[in-house]
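hi! just following up on the protien thing from before. the input was this:
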Amino acid sequence: MRSKFFMILLLVGATMLFGELKFQPFNSEFRISFGSAFFFFALIWVREIPILLTSVLAGSAVVGFRIFLDFIFPVHPFSVHESVLTHLPSLAFYMAFGLIMWMGRAWRYLQQPIRLALIGVAADFLGNVTELIVRKSLSYGYMYVPVVWQNEYFLLILAFVRSFLIVGFFNIIEIRHLREIHEEQQLRFEKLLMIGSDLHVEALYLKKMMGHIEQVTRNSYHLYRDVKQYEADSVLPKKEPPLSRRALFIAEEVHEIKKDSQRILSGMSKIIQQEEAASRLGLRDILRLVLNANDKYARMLGKKIQFFTDIQVALVTEEVYSLLSVLNNLLSNAIEAIEEEGRITLRIRREGNMFMFAVSDSGSGIAEGEEDYIFNPGYTTKYDEQGNASTGIGLAHARHIVEQLGGTLTVSRGQAPEVTTFIVRLPVGVLRKREGENV
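and the predicted 3d structure came back as:
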């Protein structure tokens, strides 16, 4: 309520001040001011305020302010009666203007600029005509309706120009505002996709880990039964607690770990499934996300890296998170392999019944004979400033995801500028395509 009251006061005050920026076209007290233009813009910009009340307040404030100016800066000996007769018709303008805007329901047509501008034309023209009628009637002492076609044409043209300019300016601001909102939403969408990509990878490995946990639980239980049998046959020495009980305790603990892992996986799966907006994306959109993220990563590391793409397929796929995970991993590795400056090239094409993704970089390359080892978990050539080795599971993650999709991930050594190339091949049937696309 306070906010609305403050907005009305601000609007009325600004209209009152802008009303003094004027010109007088008919050699009379009738004036064309910027106040009415600002008032029209404010009514369509601030949509929560009551139009009729605001119009009465704005008109009254304009009249009162002009009477006050006559008193402060008198051209002739000040007369309250003459000053009121001179400026009171301005109230008629704002009341008529607000009434037309209210009757035309202008706020319903904010997304239809032509209709909104025409309502503004009607309000502006009829408001000026009403002010002229009131001004002449007060001057002659009786109801007087002036008909001077030249004046009416001028007011109509002025109403058209002013209203369409104001609505055009309003739409420019609205478009810019919507563009900023779209960019902000796009950034949020990209962040959600990257987070979803990380969750997708972790979910895949959690599923894999649960398989191992299940096997350990089974083996622990079998061990418990065997040890218990050996204890019954007095093959094993008696301990307190018995060895069989210890084996059963291990099996129970592993079973609890499995249950906790299942709960975590269930929660992660719900989060991933809720990202319906990212259930299908075009390949070019996926690559744009990957390139934007890795360009920021390169700049964060202080490296000058040029990215090149060669895309020869048009694809819309449901394997969004899988592709994001694999390509992000390969590009980040390529960035880390480059010392200070270099280039990375990403090529995508179809080879028979397979899609081929190739990531090449101009980095330091892979030592001869190590191509078969770099996909092993724990293999790494990266160390931090304290000399601690990296985990070495990135490429193992990537290969596992690719193999889950029925594809392959290989590496080859080349010559500058493409020293190292990682090649991902995925079956066409795995990456669903949009009907009618030539892929």
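Confidence is low (pLDDT under 50) at residues 386-392, 433-439.
The radius of gyration is 38 Å.
cheers
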